[in-house]
């Protein structure tokens, strides 16, 4: 949920809060309603809102989510004060889920959208001594080590982490807790290959074969979150240890085989990909394992597109209490909320990601048409942090001269 080169800002209300956010596809390009990106902002506006400025990272013009809650309101309801959740522009949740949490906890939740995940982490580091909020959601495994090394988080071990989040634990001090994950994979247009009576590719290696020349489109890792995830997948698959140049040779082969590079996911998926609404010319695209169900029309029993599960890199998103939080107790309750069954159950259809909870319900179409990869490529967050810019630079030198 990072690079958003084509963001169109608008004010979106969610229950008793609103987010100045962009229409993003996991932070990559803007996402029209009904497309297969991992997050859209489609909640119904309400009458109260808080405007946030992604440029300044602070509330605009004194707007707020109502007045701060008082511990002696006299209403008989619990009061937890105001909690500011710092997040990326792709955050989206059903307004009723937010409202139920606010009602039961007495917390007034203010959402502060801070651009893509990379920009958000940068701002958290720069404002460490005067934190932007109380709790953060959306730090992924591409940027987790930077946040941890900078000391912008404090430890908290939520009890619900035992329901599945512990599987993705990366910090012994419990400063980050996993909330969701998504697999970035090659998506294939089944109809295109069926009409041409040609076999579909299955692996990274297949994509370099002559029969798939000029068929693949990918977003740039320098300006796109899924583009970066795909690059990391190739580095992990072809090795950066015993053969550190292996992944560069692979990209050289892709280049020679006519791969097309776009600035962002939106251009690649909705314009160039033949299996989307844009009806482009290329039947292979970097997208998400969760994309195929969103290409299905009412009454269809088969998905017209699919994910090649042997070409996936897993992105994991984390939450954590910010060091120096004004309301640390409320922040911990928000972390608990993000791991609650109600929030986890809603994540697939609200943010197009897989919940970490093993007890969460997946939509029926996901079980059949959007299975997660059984053996996705993965990489230690510290290795990503230590090499990310170097890898992107080497890729840019090769692919963009």
Notable features of this structure?
disordered N terminus; single chain; 29% helix; D-Maltodextrin-Binding Protein, domain 2; 21% strand; ten-stranded mixed β-sheet; alpha/beta; two-stranded antiparallel ribbon; 11 helices; 401 residues
Secondary-structure element order, N to C: EEEEEHEHEHEEHEHHEHEEHHEHH
Mean pLDDT across every amino acid position? 83
Look up the CATH topology of the largest domain.
D-Maltodextrin-Binding Protein, domain 2
> What is the count of structural domains?
2
CATH architectural grouping of the largest domain: 3-Layer(aba) Sandwich
The amount of helix comes to 25-40%
Structural class: alpha/beta
CATH class group of the largest domain:
Alpha Beta
SS element count, helices:
11
Strand content: 15-25%
What's the story with the biggest beta sheet? Answer: 10 strands, mixed
Low-confidence stretches: 1-35, 38-75
General form: globular
CATH-defined superfamily of the largest domain: Periplasmic binding protein-like II
End-to-end CA span: 27 Å
What is the number of beta strands? 14
* Cα-atom radius of gyration: 21 Å
């Amino acid at each position: 949920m990072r690079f958003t080169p084509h963001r169109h800002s608008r004010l979106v209300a969610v229950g008793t809060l609103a987010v100045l956010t962009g229409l993003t596809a996991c932070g990559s390009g803007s996402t029209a309603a009904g497309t297969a990106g991992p997050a859209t902002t489609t909640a119904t506006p309400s009458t109260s809102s808080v405007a946030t400025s992604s440029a300044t990272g602070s509330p605009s013009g004194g707007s707020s989510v109502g007045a701060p809650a008082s511990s002696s309101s006299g209403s008989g309801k619990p009061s937890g004060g105001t909690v500011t959740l710092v997040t990326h522009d792709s955050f989206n949740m059903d307004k009723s889920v937010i409202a139920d949490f606010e009602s039961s906890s007495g917390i007034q939740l203010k959402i502060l959208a801070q651009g893509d995940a990379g920009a958000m982490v940068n701002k958290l580091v720069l404002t460490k001594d005067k934190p932007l909020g109380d709790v953060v959601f959306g730090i992924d495994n591409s940027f987790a080590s930077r946040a941890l090394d900078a000391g912008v988080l404090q430890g908290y071990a939520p009890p619900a982490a035992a329901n599945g989040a512990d599987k993705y634990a990366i910090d012994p001090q419990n400063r980050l807790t996993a909330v969701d994950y998504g697999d970035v994979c090659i998506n294939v247009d089944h109809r295109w290959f069926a009409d041409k009576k040609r076999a579909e590719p299955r692996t990274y290696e297949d994509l370099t074969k002559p029969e798939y020349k000029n068929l693949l489109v990918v977003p740039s890792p320098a300006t796109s979150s899924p583009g970066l995830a795909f690059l990391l997948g190739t580095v992990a698959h072809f090795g950066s240890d015993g053969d550190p140049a292996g992944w560069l040779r692979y990209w050289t082969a892709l280049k020679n085989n006519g791969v097309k590079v776009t600035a962002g996911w939106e251009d690649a998926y909705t314009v160039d990909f033949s299996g989307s609404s844009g009806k482009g010319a290329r039947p292979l695209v970097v997208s998400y394992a969760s994309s195929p169900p969103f290409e299905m029309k009412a009454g269809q029993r088969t998905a017209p597109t699919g994910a090649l599960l042997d070409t996936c890199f897993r992105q994991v998103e984390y939450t954590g209490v910010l060091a120096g939080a004004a309301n640390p107790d409320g922040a911990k309750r928000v972390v608990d909320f993000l791991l609650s069954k109600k929030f986890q159950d809603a994540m697939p259809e609200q943010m197009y990601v897989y919940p970490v909870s093993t007890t969460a319900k997946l939509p029926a179409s996901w079980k059949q048409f959007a299975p997660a990869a059984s053996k996705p490529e993965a990489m230690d967050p510290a290795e990503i942090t230590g090499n990310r810019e170097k890898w992107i630079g080497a890729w840019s030198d090769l692919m963009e001269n």
